[in-house]
Amino acid sequence: MNPDKKKTVAVFCGSKQGNDPVFVSHARALGRLLAENGIAIIYGGGGKGIMGALADGHLEAGGSITGIIPKMLVDFEHQHNGLTELVVTEDMHTRKKIMYQRCDLAIILPGGFGTLDELFEMLTWNQLSIHDKRILVLNSGGFYTHLMAHMRHLEETGFLYDRIAERVKMFDTPDALVHALAD
Questions:
Q1: Which fold is adopted by the domain 8-181?
Q2: pTM of the predicted model, to two decimals?
Q3: What is the mean pLDDT of the chain?
Q4: pLDDT tens digit string along 122-166?
Q5: Treating both helix axes as pointing N-terminal to C-terminal, what angle do 92-102 and 113-127 enclose, rounded to 10 degrees?
């Protein structure tokens, strides 16, 4: 990363809010903390659920945030209309490619199949040396505890090339995650 360039993180998260209020509160807090630390966000462009809370927190704190949303999801995810930049793509693959290219690292918040797809594609690309971007997981309310246990199981049973701890770092609070970005 160019030291004169503002750091940009890709944040992958759900367009729904889930059933634990900590998911939304952590997303809003993370957005605010990233803005307060001069870190730009690139994310899925949605205006509701965890995506919307992340964007609102970031914008309220004066941050710069870019949304990347496929045409097919503009209505479904209800694009956020207050973003610094909104890019509408032809498809999901283009969305992910742009997000991966324009970020310095990735942060994973709670979400559904799409969020898991993005997490595992980032991990796979790391493993294949397509990129070497750090992946940080915000384990809001223990959301990713079981998944991380399964990824350790993949390691223990000989299906990973590296230790999972070398690929993914997990944090329980937005403060701890943002503090780790300084390292």
A1: Rossmann fold (3.40.50)
A2: 0.95
A3: 94
A4: 999 999 999 899 999 999 999 999 999 999 999 999 999 999 999
A5: 50
The owner of tokens 């605010």 is 32
Following DSSP, what letter does each residue of the chain receive, concatenated? --TTSPPEEEEE--SS--S-HHHHHHHHHHHHHHHHTT-EEEE--BSSHHHHHHHHHHHHTT--EEEEEEGGGTTTTTB-SS-SEEEEESSHHHHHHHHHHH-SEEEE-S-SHHHHHHHHHHHHHHHTTS---EEEEE-GGGTTHHHHHHHHHHHHTT--SS-HHHHEEEESSHHHHHHHHT-
Domain ranges of the chain: 8-181
